Amino acid sequence: MKILVINSGSSSIKFQLMETAGEKVLAKGLLERIGIEGSTFNYQPAGKEKTSRSVPIPDHRTGIRLVLEALTDPREGVIANFSEVEAVGHRIVHGGEKIKRSELLSDEVLAIVRECSDLAPLHNPPNLMGVEAVRAILPDTPNVGVFDTAFHATMPPSAYVYPIEYSYYEKHGIRRFGFHGTSHQYVALRGAAMMKKAPADFNCVVCHLGNGSSLTAVRGGKSVDTTLGFGTMCGVPMGTRAGDVDPAIILHLIGELKMTVEDVNKLIYKKSGLLGISGKSSDMRDIIEGDRAGDARSTLAFDLFAHGVRKYIAALATNLGGRLDAVIFTAGIGENASEARERICRGLEFMGVRLDPERNRVRGQEAVISRDDSPVKVLCIPTNEELMIALETERVVRSGRA
Q: pTM (2 decimals)?
């Protein structure tokens, strides 16, 4: 099935046209600065060079039309006409409590997505703009929403209810939702395949480590606990986000230091994490370079990050029914930073994690990076959220779920 995968932001659209048979990318691209002067269209058909051109893109509908025109272009296109696009899969960040799986984007489902915009104000509205643009141009083509939160809908109440007065969950829906679900789902499935296990018989902790990071305990193919919560700031330290912070600190910043809510929000989301501790960069490559050079604050930032990830690997493993098959590293840091993987795994030997230094030198490719005698395997698996969206879209369309 030929599926167009769309990830729509407020001023950008990432896209891939995929053929699910053989899991092939036929073409991909990125539209930038939509609605802003200097907008550009980047496009790359499979097997050809990427092209980039400046072109006015006043809105998302214009952007989607440019995508479809490029895909059907007589010289650079990869399909003959629009009808070859059999379905469109959309990345949507938040489905709240009501959406627990990938869904056909009916008017009723889209109304729920709009309701959830307060929970993801930077993501759901632009995600919806992409859906509306596709529906306007391809009114008869099925649209499927693949939700970052949906994979975590299998968590038990003990994992998602916060221990504050219960009425805040009942009346206001304050709970742990979790994010990066599409990545966690894809990587857990690939991990099971690499270990020649059925997903239902595979337990792992997935470490999605990038500028934004989260860890998830996956038991029998289902999320049972995760580090991100109601929002995207808790858990491990990230590029600019603090991760876990004692709420008393927040109250102290507001009550004693007289910081505004906006000031605190900026501090914990934009000026903390690797950037805040190192004082230099939010990029793990710079942190590692500073650590090698003996910069004390870079070393502290690196150690804080590794400590947080290591702590959560051990904690999440307690939710796997007594058996941990693998620890999996993915996303920008997880896939590429061998030194980060090594520092994280240092100290996990007690639970059966034995990293192989030579195998750990891998970057950006699937590999088993633990020793042969490691009871718990350590895997490096590049994430592929676009492929997961395409496969989920195909599954939903073929099942005919409305």
A: 0.93
Angstrom distance (rounded) from CA 320 to CA 315: 10
Structure tokens at 168: 């805040």
Q: What is d(CA 270, CA 83) in angstroms, rounded to the nearest whole number?
A: 44
Judge whether 92 and 148 are in contact, CB under 8 Å.
yes
* H-run or E-run covering 145: strand 143-147
Q: Are 366 and 246 in contact (CB under 8 A)?
A: no
Question: Which of 289, 391, 400, 269 minimizes the C-alpha distance to 24?
Answer: 391
Annotated active-site residue 59? The verdict is: no
**Domain topology for 2-147:** Nucleotidyltransferase; domain 5 (3.30.420)
Domain with CATH 3.30.420.40 in the chain: 2-147, 195-385
Classify residue 198 by burial, with Cβ atoms within 10 Å: 0-12, 13-18, 19+: exposed
Q: Could you give the percent of the chain with pLDDT greater than 70?
A: 100
Q: What is the mean pLDDT of residues 208-216?
A: 96
Report d(CA 66, CA 50) in Å as an integer: 16
DSSP 334: H
Cβ atoms of 42 and 32 within 8 Å: the answer is: yes
CA distance 207 to 214: 6
Q: Quick: pLDDT tens for 250-261.
A: 999 999 999 999
Segments in 246-357 forming alpha helices (H): 247-255, 261-270, 273-278, 284-292, 296-317, 331-336, 338-345
Contacts made by residues 242-246, CB under 8 angstroms, sequence distance 24+: 242/267, 242/268, 242/269, 242/272, 242/273, 242/276, 243/273, 243/308, 244/308
CATH of segment(s) 195-385: 3.30.420.40
Among the listed residues 73, 118, 148, 283, the single catalytic one is: 148
3-class DSSP state for residue 17?
strand
Across the strands, what pairs with 146?
91
Q: DSSP string covering 81-128, please?
A: SGGG--EEEEEES--TTT--S-EE--HHHHHHHHHGGGTSTTTHHHHH
Alpha helices in 223-260 (DSSP H): 247-255
